[in-house]
Task: structure prediction
Amino acid sequence: MTNIKRLFDGELQVVNMGSKTFAKELAAQGVGVVDVDWQPPAGGDSRLLDALDRLEGREEAEAANREAVERIAAARPVLVDLQAAHRVVPGMTGRTILHAGPPVTWERMCGPMRGAIMGALLYEGWARDEKEAAALAASGEIVFSPCHEHQAVGPMAGIISPSMPVFIIENVTHGNRAFCTMNEGLGKVLRYGAYSPDVISKLKWMETVLAPALREAIQLSGGIDIRAMIAQALHMGDECHNRNKAGTSLLIRTLAPYLVRTATPPDTLAQVLSFIDGNDHFFLNLSMPACKAIMDAAHGIPHSTVVTTMARNGTDFGIRVSGLGDRWFTAPAEIVDGLYFPGYTSADANPDIGDSAITETTGIGGFAMAGAPAIVQFVGGTVADAGRYTNLMYEITLAESRSFTIPQLNFRGTPTAIDLRKVMSTGVLPHINTGIAHREAGVGQVGAGLVRPPRVCFENALLAMAESVK
Amino acid sequence: MTNIKRLFDGELQVVNMGSKTFAKELAAQGVGVVDVDWQPPAGGDSRLLDALDRLEGREEAEAANREAVERIAAARPVLVDLQAAHRVVPGMTGRTILHAGPPVTWERMCGPMRGAIMGALLYEGWARDEKEAAALAASGEIVFSPCHEHQAVGPMAGIISPSMPVFIIENVTHGNRAFCTMNEGLGKVLRYGAYSPDVISKLKWMETVLAPALREAIQLSGGIDIRAMIAQALHMGDECHNRNKAGTSLLIRTLAPYLVRTATPPDTLAQVLSFIDGNDHFFLNLSMPACKAIMDAAHGIPHSTVVTTMARNGTDFGIRVSGLGDRWFTAPAEIVDGLYFPGYTSADANPDIGDSAITETTGIGGFAMAGAPAIVQFVGGTVADAGRYTNLMYEITLAESRSFTIPQLNFRGTPTAIDLRKVMSTGVLPHINTGIAHREAGVGQVGAGLVRPPRVCFENALLAMAESVK
Result:
């Protein structure tokens, strides 16, 4: 009884969990109350709780996840070459166009993706003008397929057509390869759906001038360790998704001594170097396929609950899970919460788009924001928020990276290997930081910010996983 | 009486200031005690307290300091050229050798400085071998003079001889210039006192191959804004004294498009680019003269108590103060507290040496460590320490930089313009991070760490300042 007496005699200090109504009522009566943002596992949904129960602690899942984590840790992506996509990307036959995110038909594609595809048809010479391009795209003669199903990734619309040169990243540990186009820079660019003649002629310059010079330099270098470069960039304020200034700088200083030994004439060399120097995101198109090469090595391990793909096509968000093979779990893509460039608002924003969330899937990007405080000037929020995002991601991951560390967290490894089960049991969704595309083709980037995947992708994947162990 | 009663009835929670004896006694009796590391202004020294009293709040000092702060803020150092020292450095006539720190005679010079001077005599062809060099150096025929008195700065021994090429930094706001040699890289180098034939031939290569290529590139560029480059590097994990990886990267990407347009043959270009890429401290020899150009603009303002020079020659530490003109206030240099490379200990260390503390004098380097957490792997301490060092320096500075900001501190400007009075009234000495030279000539760097200036430099400057306003 003494404790009860104390409770009623003393001043109340209340911790409220769950429904906020109690907290509000108490606060209104002047009672000190701390509101804990708690929710029951799996939102209290009994089907999901059953699925979680079935998957938690299963030795086959634990072993599979240890294997996945070990493969992620051991993978070493190296830039080895740069070739036309049709020569190296598997399944890139005939009139195939790859795009970002999960599968999507022409009819359901968003504005920027449609524009980018029309641009690719013009670039390939399959159409002579906008009208022909639109008709051809809608005709059924073009095969549209996700980059992710062809060992490739692409930022924003993520379009890869057969003639486009792609970086070749080889995971020298496991032997798999990943591909990505070169970054076009800012402003009016194909990946945001622009397809005007200047956009196409820049792509042609990249194919005929930039690519040959870079190809020769990369070959002379004998291979560039992109894992090591990402590790350094993370100590230099990049998170290697929306801040790539250090990565781009490191790439230039590494390539320059080889570039000057190529057959490229001096004026062209100067153009090539200025082009890369003029675009702090040039390195994004290397960090993305490096991450793809890492995560593909951990994909397809039976029973593993590690999320190996998060990708968006501007209409749908889709995830894939190591133990569930090539099945996509999709839901409508969200609008990004972020900072808009002058003159634009969220009304201009296309829903979340691009394969660049492969960085978060690998434990960098939004997962490494604690090490990239300057990025808040670009994606919004505070420096403290950036630290909190990273710290929160340890709740839903299985490991801390051995390669990628964060000085600000006393060199702790970044949160790596998202566990589908942890996402559902904690209710914490992955944090992705990303660029925002205008919803109309060709306007370009209108801002940058933060977004989370739709929860239902993870719910459906969890149910499928549980189904598979029945 | 009620308060007294409460005091003796309740549990004591004591705040102890000053002598630690009281705190210890209380703690021994189980009393909660917080020990505040307080000391009386000027260490309680009555002469210094008088001097402080005389200088505090004087309108002429306040106005002079406002002017100094404004000049520091407005200064914009730009890299405009690279020329042989004898062509551009004032007073570099006949057999003059410049060195780091305050004035020092051959007899009192430390090992690394003697070695570097002997190397310079060999490099200039004024001596044919070690023996001749030592004899000439001791003969009185060579004029030794501090870099700082010739608008120049040099890391470690800081030797500048007439034939050495020097970067020319122009403060385009105020028109003054500053000079610094090119960084030779790591290992056996002149600035650590090495003078073997390979050291001299590398210096000759730098003079005859590296310098002409860089000179042409710098001239083609029309000038490179080093203030802007430092500002970016500070957002990329550099503090621009002992971590210059981002600065060096930014320099390479900026110079490369011009370098390839010079008349330099491709193989030489590759050597030049590889040489710079191989040395993450290359940018130090630009951040230092940029800081010198900034601080020289604030030097020589009557009544200003802003410290405009902190420099060491390996024997003495010296400071100069804006309002006290060219007078040096010196005291024996300290041993650096730091991390040693394998095989070395503090017994191998030369006392603090070099002009690189010009970075701290300008509010970067040790003053900006909060933005460079990765540096603790090099200079020791923890990431939290790095943040504390920066925060503490706001106690002794007059302003926050408008150009140089720290993302980790929510983009607060770095602590800038050390006020002699604040150093003495708070008892807080500037934090300098620095490389550690072996005490014998030519061994090279043996570690890196943190050091503070001798307090007596500031005491004597304060007394001189007070004297001047009698």
